[in-house]
Records
---
Amino acid sequence: MSTQLPDSETETEPDTESEPEASPGDRRRAEKRARQDEAAEQRAAEEAERAREEEETYHLKVFRYDPEVAAKQEPRFDDFHVPFEKGMTVLDALIYARDHFDSSLTFRHSCRQAICGSDALFVNGRQRLGCKTQLSDLDEPVRIEPLPHQDVEKDLVVDMEHFYDQMEAVEPYFQTESLPDDDLEEQRQSPENREYVKLSTRCIWCGACYSSCNIAAGDNEYLGPAAINKAYRFAMDEREGEEMKQKRLEILEQEHGVWRCQTQFSCTEVCPKDIPLTEHIQELKREAVKNNLKFW
Amino acid sequence: MTDIHEHDVLVIGAGGAGLRAAVAAHEAGADVAMVTKLHPVRSHTGAAEGGINAALREGDSWELHAYDTMKGSDYLGDAPAIETLAQDAPEDVIDLEHWGMPFSREEDGTVSQRPFGGLSFARTTYAGAETGHHLLHTLYEQVVKRGITVYDEWYVTRLAVTDEDDPADRTCHGVVAIDVKTGEVAGFRATSGVILATGGLGQAFDHTTNAVSCTGDGPAMAYRVGVPLEDMEFVQFHPTTLPSTGVLISEGVRGEGGILYNAEGERFMFEGGYANNDGELASRDVVSRAELTEINEGRGIEDEYVHLDMRHLGEERIVDRLENILHLAADFEGVDGLEEPMPVKPGQHYEMGGIEVDENGETVIDGLYAAGECACVSVHGSNRLGGNALPELIVFGKRAGLAAAGGDLGEADIPTGRHDEFETDSIDSPVPLGEAGSLDDEAVADGGPALSDADSVVEAAVEAETGRVETLMDREDGVNHAEIRAEVQRTMTENVNVFREAPGLKRALEDIRAARERYADVSVDDPSRTFNTDLIQTIETRNILDVAEAITIGALAREEFRGAHWRAEFQERRDEEWLKHTMLAWNGGSPDLYYKPVDLDGENEEHTYEPKERSY
């Protein structure tokens, strides 16, 4: 199975369970959990029945895990049969399943239009944004899992902290020594240079590339494609100037930087914003070589 | 009792306004923390497409920008707010450029500007058709650079406010938030100020450009602790959203020359006489009404939408300036904008009203501030111009940040709170308004002796919120929030849309009342503390109920047609009677309606704000 489970599964029991005296509230919640599991079985049977009766439904197999709920502590896949409407996306189907069948089904989502980057998922074996993936483009059953290579918090929600740490490790902010004196005067940038960095500025921090990267999976300290692309966005921006570019290349040349990339193109293939990540990494390698030659 | 997190300034929400406020407060020397239910880069500011209005160029001036904005507001904006926006926008936009924002550029390397609806000068600064994405990321970069603390995926559910009778005597000492990851309920103490920057409330409607996280949290929380909501009936319906999803197609398409056609192939904005001068680039309210009139009179396509055609602009120009639109039309409507016209119809887009604040972002409650879409200064009055939301975020986000950090912005001209001379009113509602069988009365403003020290106020709020969460988690076999939410969205879209009439508005009030009564039995089925989105959405749904009701009360009260608010019974603007803001006070759960005069008295010497007919 491609989905990694957290190592600390057994350590994340809820506090309420370990307290010597369970309050009435705790007991009620425990009962509620037990009943929920029964309800889940019953629901699956009812949905399968619906699926037989109704003509067009889509069959989803959705990864489930919750460190606190007995029946979900051992990861499992739940089946949902969702009525299909033209134009329906994977996210629409998940929302339908949650709102109609199981309100505990948990996934991140917000904008529904591929700009917030919340809903990168592993769908039929590939990293995709749920909101941007048409059900009709997928084979059934549609298998929906959390992003591989990241700890699962619950169901389809993964821990993004490490990804954010990598993004923030490359000094991901504009730096320049020479701003115009006038507060109302902008820096000049040629349309060509703006065009040159344009694709790199489209990153929505969804983490699909990082999850797809074999190198990142094996080397936890590897900056990864998204963070390197973020550094590229500034290094190639002519407004920062040559001196800053040198500094950025030094950061990227560290042990877990650009040289780790083995140009497998998996990041580029899964990027929902079509950013040529591998090319950007390669270009930075070339710049670094040029840079090093200069100092010989 | 868990530890209370303490900072000088707390910013609630991390979109454009919140991030800008945090940077400003930090620069003023404050210890700032952001508490936000989404990681900052997930915020819906990122979905803004078109641009940022700012008078940067020769031939343009802040006076012209202010005049256009006042006209666009249909004379319901307040002059001090509008002039502050127009005066501050140029410097604040250049700040973004100095922070590296990748604006689109002219050949000489200066930032580009383009025409937008309702503007007398092409002053909309932009970064492709993804201006909001770049603004959001640029501001977050500045927050990272400054090492500002961010509590992300912490959902603020309650404000910790003292309980004096008059809201003007109350003080806000902090907030209560739920850590989404663990379910922990924790207190946050602000020694200097709390800034609400929670964004929109589009989830009160079922066809909206807003994210699912735009649930009116800020307005609802502020309302319940005594801050009035202002002009809530003014909801902007954007004329070009994709019919199946509500995804926004930027006004930039029309700014660049895109044309609207009905089913008969007529360019109806001109041929139908809706806007003989500006056509497609008339103000948004004008275009939305025109489209729905065409559709209602049988000239829509599939009785549902009209066509927006940009093919004649040519591939090069489209790819250069509107590339993102091609992706959106293809991914969310299956249409190739280079080959065929795009289907569009009006969709809920923006709430002009909100938390009453002055031009320094201060509410009537001491220590409580608001900025961005959740606030109402009022810059937009009854209709916001395209390209005026993003400058509002940065201008008033910055001002609120400075003010909350103790900076001196001078005395505000805009009054807040209720004054004796204000006119009061009531509506003919078929049902009781306000809370129905509440879980508890809000905040610390209920019963008991006045709490004297700030920590106790926060602790009491934490205790109250913990009780609420326990009640929701423990209740058995109640109603699921999704049913309630769907019902509110349905009735709002059916009855409180572009065209409004009294019987429909009353039906909406009845439906909202019924939904409130069902909410008294709402329960959370997911028993887990970990990432319980069932719980989060249940709490959001209560906020949706409050803002939906406030919008509908305002819509029934305002018996005229102004800006985005149109009434079948009153199809004219009535300046003698209605040059005033609709104010709604929570009043302990029984909403109280009154009016505040509009301030049209500016310092603009080139253009007066004398109300005149608004034609485009």
Note: Residues 229 and 280 of chain A are 7 Å apart (CA to CA).
---
Amino acid sequence: MTLDSGRFLPRGELEHLFTALQADGRRVVGPTVVDGAVVYDELTSPAQLPVGWQADMAPGRYRLRSTGGERAFDYTIPLTSWKRFTHPSFVPLTRGRHDEGQVLVESVVTDAPRLAFVGVRACEVAALAIQTRAMRAGPLGDADHAARDDAALVVAVECATSTSTCFCTSMGTGPEVNGGVDIVLAELDDGFVVRSGTPAGARLIKGLGLRPAAAAETDRASKQVAAVREAIGDPVPAEGLPARLRAALDHPRWDQVAERCLACANCTLVCPTCFCTSVAVASDLDGIEGSTTRTWDSCFSLGFGRVAGDANFRPQVRDRYRQWLTHKFSTWWDQFGSTGCVGCGRCIAWCPVGIDVREELRAVAPADAPTGPIPWPRSPAAGRAPAPLETVLPATHAVATVRALAAETADTTTLRLACSDAAILAARPGQFVMVELPAFAVPPISISRMLPDGIELTIRAVGPATSAITSLQLGAEISLRGPMGRGWPVAEAYGRDVVIVAGGIGLAPIRPLIDMILKERPRFGAVRLYLGARTPQDRLYVHEMHALAGRADLQVSEIVDRAGPEWTGRVGVVTQLFDQATWNGGRVTAFMCGPERMMQATATTLGRLNVRPAATWLTLERNMACGVGTCGHCQLGPFFVCRDGPVFSLAALGDAFGREGL
Amino acid sequence: MRSSKRALLSKTRFAAGMSPDVCKRLAALAEVADVPAGTHVIREGEPIAALGVVISGRIALRLNVPGVGQQTILTVDDGDVFGWSAVMPGSRSTSTGTALVPTQALLFDRDRLLAAMAEDCELASAVYQRMLKVVARRLAATRVQLLDLYHVDHAS
């Protein structure tokens, strides 16, 4: 909705606006001075506003300076953002109980407070909209954010001042407020030009009984914000920036900035749009009751890209700085159709070593830098067949009961779970579930077999949660959320030959694919299965694979990395199995799962055998804490592996596949 | 009827791309060996008598690990070679080669092969190019094996 023509609120009557907001059943949150800085906090009166204060911000610096004036909104921008109220740092997710084999997990429903945000700047209006898009972009919306967002009323205040760290002009987010808010104020010396942007805002303003703003007043307001635009200039060459950054993944500047960056995460915590979170697990002392809480996290933290087994996809600071910068200014466009940065400049002031993001952008991706080659297709959807997502609600905690346990190897167990949940029973090959045992972390586990009355999960015990799950007794219950992700596009292989390559426990997500292919066997040409394992003792589903090898309509080859003298099968790497391949790769659709390095080598070999990248499908592992694309952990370039994958075609991933530190 | 040595050699992956003339000259140096399962065709640390090209069957290349025993680090199948050190004068076998199943192989006596390669540059070039490919492929595979990928792999 566009803004109306404006009315005038005398300075002395600002109190009336507060009263009207409170009468609307809202608590007012706005800027106030705390410990020498302007921050957002709950206010009861306009007297608490930062009257007569202006902020000087610079790289690594923030100081308040008294102006001696009466203006309440001259501070430019508070040190903290609205994120505290729309996406709090701690949000309870679930409460659970696990007692004598019985499991109960319940979602905690947010009771969002009715808040009025007063003093929202243009860049922050944009940030709220960006955050909303991110939180509602997945197959599921973030229920907590939606509740808080819906319950908030936004009173923006156009900037009359700027500081040296501002660059909203470059990001196209300010300083003018052109809509997307309930009310906009423009502060003049004697009062405010007030405009409404929504029916709710119009009702509130009408209740104040204000006279129309005079032309001179609206003119002063316009000139004031125009002067701010002029003062800020255009410090970041934003036109074409996403493409230039995509093409600069190997720029030496990443190493240079990493020498200064402390990876302290300040920039992400103060950023009004950064939304990444983790799940913290709490337990009582006897491990019976537990709860999970969503907490802010940062792509700068060392463990952010870590997965089970201690593999870490972004071990170096350069990887993490590159992730942050390219996400904000490039891959955010792929994911959400907008910039992820609004140019508020908080990250510059908060950086303890004074790294200025504008300077880094000018160095890494100057206006005349090349925009190619593009390391991955422009859109996550490009290069892959559309696959409808099974939509499940994150609040769904389906109870499953352990009906059988089979030890596959010394550390890997297959659990047969009975479950009546319709969504779980409708799972497709390649999808995964989040498995929750109260008081333990919630790991994503690939479904290793679909059954008429449940599923199987094959789990390697690599940590406390997976150890606890694989130690469950028959009849014990467990909570499942899912199915999640995009599975194997089986139909892509109809009428074609099929090559399946599985390494180690990567055979688990492949197994339902084999089941489905065998179920629809006449639809496929030749089917060849290539299996790799560490040792003969580490092979999964040995009897099943042996039975498959005996079938006339399936060719099974296996190899292990090392073996004792009792093993008469092949020893070497999986690619060795293709040495004698005589099949025509042009007719092949390939599916593979295993360690990423193994899949890289296999992809190269398949390429030599003329298997097309668009016909080569693989499933990736990344840190997946939420499973629905809102926690941010599993990002790989423009992709959320949990939401856009975990199954991808090689063509869709492009150079993102196997690239160091991505 | 048993195939000729030349016919056997020319069908192998090892001889792929080799000119018919060179293939003929190389085949003339070969002996066909039928190796019963369990037979050691080379022994770790010992001089190598011959370069072998597997026609059919499987040879395990093993290293002895004190306290652990024989560990298979690679198997050699159809078209692959064993005893490649034979083409390096004076070298000894780096592993023990044992037939896992009845195996047929072409054996190239080391001394005859080295002498022929000294006389016949075209033959030497063809053999060394293929040896280099074999060694490079094994080096690449060994590097991947060294990473022990499955040990920290996909937690499913």
Note: Confidence is low (pLDDT under 50) at residues 380-395 of chain A.
